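Per reviewer request, we include the raw input and output of the structure prediction for the construct analysed in the revised manuscript.
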Amino acid sequence: ICYMVFYFFFFKQKTAYEMLRSLVGSEMCIRDRLIVDLMGKAAPVGERRMIAFRADTDALNMTELNDDLEYKSKNANVAHMCGHDGHVTCLLGGASLILEQLDKIPSNKGVRLLFQPAEERYGGAPVMIKEGCLDGIDEVYGFHNWPTFQIGKLLVKEGPVMSEVTVIDFKIIGQGGHGSEPERARDPLQPAIDIHVAFRDYVKGYKQKGIQFACTLPVLKSGQIYNVIPDYVEMSGTLRTFDNKFTKEFVEGLESLAKGICQKYNCELQHNFNTVYPAIINRKAEADHIKRLAQEFFGVEKTLSDPLPFYASEDFSYYLIEKPGAFFFLGSGKQDNDGMLHNPRFNFNDELIESASKFWLRVVEDRLDVKLN
């Protein structure tokens, strides 16, 4: 079910909508096909309270190489190599447990399930927020499976847990020409090479100051044929930080460095720095709630903060800009260091489903202050 069914959240929202209907029943509030409110049925107690749980639903634009699996993706260049189908399954598992006990939850308290598309590239979170998915929400929580940690481990901390990512694009424009007369051209490849060499020293300088960040420029595109000097060279990469002020300082310095080198070779620099997702910054109170619950559920020794923060990025950050909450990580490996996300042979470990579903129930019990089985 984890792979074969929830592929539909990426392409066929109508099918997913009908699946949710069959799970929660027509009397529940399902809005916009991807938002589900589960409200209690007991007599109201105290003030109204609503918490939200989010699961991302989209696949990656890559081809799965798990040829031995019967549930391997049937679609070229579309595959769940990050485990979002597993996240959906775990949230639906938690929802099924909640549904069994709605009569124990006051009618003025509830849980909103956010099934969010487009996390990987397009930023589905801010779109859903703009459409009102957090209206009336007091706290919001989400998690990501993490196969480099064994099942039964939970990672959480206050403050940054995932990075802000900025895409760096450089276009170095010279003047192309015939390879037999290089003196008549302005070869843009030489400044590109110099920029890359200087870039490494630039990064090293900041690393020596103890600043946490990662920056690479792995893409360099130049030329199409062996006897033609190209008109331009393209370079691109990413900067990952946990402090937006540092991001601005770093890219301003990198721009100045690249411009200076281009001017030396009488070439023009065009640049673009696009911050795609902000860093995920956990609120202290909500991170402490998850830590406390994890220590009770998984054990103190299996509730970790090291090696957070991770340099990967996630658009859950937008929810935490708007509302108190926390993002945490559940080990999904059969052992520590058991493969990586975004690998063409990644296979979500279904053994995580039961414990993750039950942990969602524990969060409901604690944050809504109700006693559930």
